[in-house]
Amino acid sequence: MGNNKLICDCNMRWFQQYFQRLDNKDSEEFCFGTASTHKIKISDFKPDWWQCDNNTTKVAVSAGGVVLFICFIAGIIYYARWDIRFAFVIRFGWRCCAKKPQDADVNLVKIFDAFVSYSLLDTAWVAAELIPNLENDEQFNFRLCVHERNFLPGNSIVESVEGAMDGSYCVIFWITQNFLESEVCDFELNLAKTKLFGGSIRSVIFIFEERFDKIQLPQPMGIMIRHCQCLYWPDLRLRKRDIFWKRLKLALLENRPKEN
């Protein structure tokens, strides 16, 4: 090779193959490292596996593929998270997500899954959407307490509402512009806040007909929505409606007592 200095890199591998074919044990050739003048015998030069044959690119592509696959799976799980959770409840039963009885439940007889608070001007939605989709579910048999059907005649509105909340595990609020302008609904909201923080009811679920500005919401609601579940009535797309009802049913199931 004369006085030519050979650099130890991936291009030297064909020299190694060449000398192996010559099988000349008396002849020794050396190459030099790129960062030093240290001589390395060509037959002893062994580059790192990732340096040659575009292995670095292969590793990068493989790692990128794994990351994209994980992101793809995570995206599917996120998109179908409510379907997965609902299927889990269907498979193992609602008791797997139920809560243990609270101290305040001991002296209260709960006969309803939820008391529904709404403006009487919005009765149509409650009758056409909420009641059929929940009470006609033969698997879970939800029971709702509504004004027109379950309030006893002769009792005051205060007694009726308080008794209905005490007999329910949670309260569902159907929030519309009519609700925000109703004094009765405002009373029910304040009473629910008292009972929620006092432990008489387990949770409050807000269903908003539309997205209201925070300044439109009464102060008790502004406090409660930070601690309660909020759902929004979706448009007519079937997928969104299906997810809405699954989320609402799961929220109601979580409030049922877990049997010992």
Automatic annotation (TrEMBL):
The keyword Membrane applies. Keywords: Membrane, Signal, Transmembrane, Transmembrane helix. The keyword Signal applies. Residues 110-252 form the TIR domain. GO terms for biological process: signal transduction. It is found in: Membrane. GO terms for molecular function: signaling receptor activity. The chain crosses the membrane at residues 59-80. One of its GO terms (cellular component) is plasma membrane. This is Toll-like receptor 6. It comes from Lingula anatina (Brachiopod). The lineage of its organism: Eukaryota, Metazoa, Spiralia, Lophotrochozoa, Brachiopoda.
